[in-house]
Specification:
The protein is 30% helix and 24% strand. It is an alpha/beta fold and 338 residues long. The strands form 2 sheets. The chain has an 8-stranded mixed β-sheet with strand order 8-9-10-7-11-12-13-14, covered by helices on one side. The model has no long low-confidence stretch (mean pLDDT 96).
């Protein structure tokens, strides 16, 4: 690799600690230089060489920094990303990238004007469970797809401690903007833009001011219907991926271990990183011409968010096409804001 990309992150909360710093610090394509920590200076305990700034302006005024990770609360993403672009920095933005399609277009148009890159962090494309689903679909073993279900089921009846996540007055909040971008992006990657869609939302937890349940129904050519569902009052989660076709079905639980491993301090260069435990295999059921069923258990390949950062590197250094395109994000935002 050529010269590493000098990078700063806007926060060392859960996102910075788990999803960004471990990869930026172990990937030779990056030099993790600085962070914004307004209150407690925690990052130096793990990354002693880090520069900890008190304000976003100080971070953006660092001339050595080329790339800014915008991993602040949802409602700040658009403003901070725009500010970073105007400061001459490339940006990698946590989902959701903005609050509506108008803001998305403004960011991409601005990036083109100033000859910089806008990239959105959709790490779940590199989850082991989703990679298994993608591989089975692309193998053709299921035949023509007819019905697909992607789910994010959780049981969290207690409202979050962070007020901005639970206050109706705060824009770009609730489960639609929190978890839906993950499975919408996965659906868009596999199936593209739907012909049409409808959306159902609800606030089911006691005292909730925000959406904590969603269901999207996406209609595609050849009568394919894709359902995307998420909720916070699901005591017994259903399989996260169910794919039916004319020749078979594939059922897979959400088994990716990367977030848990990173939270426990495992390095992404550890040999065990991203490997699902035994017993997590997906169930492939195929039908023979005589209606005989064949059941096969499919192990997942290794999940690894490193590939997202590799894509960021090649986009900036080699002007490669970033895999999460402006088109993907625009389609996603249409569903989120509907």
């Amino acid at each position: 690799m050529s010269k590493p990309i000098v990078t700063g992150i806007m926060s060392y909360g859960m996102s910075g600690r788990i999803f960004h710093a471990p990869f930026l610090s172990t990937n030779p394509g990056f030099k993790l230089k600085a962070v914004v920590e307004r209150h407690e200076k925690k990052m130096a305990a793990v990354y002693p060489a880090i520069v900890s700034y008190d304000t976003v302006d100080q971070l953006l005024n660092d001339r050595e920094i080329e790339l800014i990770i915008v991993n602040t609360p949802n409602f700040t993403h658009f403003d901070f990303a725009k500010k970073a672009l105007l400061a001459g920095k490339h940006v990698l933005i946590e989902k959701p990238a903005a609050g509506n399609t108008k803001e998305i277009k403004e960011l991409y148009d601005l990036a083109k004007t100033v000859n910089l890159q806008v990239m959105v962090y959709q790490n779940r494309r590199w989850d082991s469970d989703f990679l298994a689903v993608k591989e089975v679909i692309e193998s053709g073993k299921l035949g023509r797809l007819t019905e697909v279900h992607f789910r994010y089921d959780r049981y969290k009846p207690v409202l979050a401690v962070k007020a901005f996540k639970e206050t109706g007055d705060t824009p770009i909040n609730g489960l639609v903007f929190d978890l839906a971008p993950h499975i919408i992006d996965q659906a868009m990657l596999l199936f593209g833009q739907p012909l049409s869609f409808d959306k159902l939302t609800a606030s089911q937890r006691e005292g909730s001011e925000v959406v904590d349940y969603f269901n999207f129904r996406l209609k595609y050519p050849n009568q394919l219907v894709v359902y995307l569902t998420g909720g916070l009052l699901i005591p017994e989660p259903l399989p996260s991926f169910v794919v039916h076709g004319t020749l078979g079905s594939f059922i897979k639980n959400r088994c990716d271990v990367q977030e848990v491993q990173l939270d426990k301090g495992m390095s992404p260069v550890d040999e065990a990183y991203g490997m699902e435990p035994k017993g997590s295999e997906g169930k492939l059921v195929t039908m023979e011409p005589d209606d005989h069923k064949t059941i096969t258990y499919i192990p997942s390949s290794k999940g690894n968010y490193k590939y997202l950062f590799d894509a960021v590197y090649h986009t900036i250094r080699d002007n490669a096409l970033y895999p999460i395109t402006e088109e993907h994000i625009s389609w996603q935002m249409e569903l989120l804001e509907a």
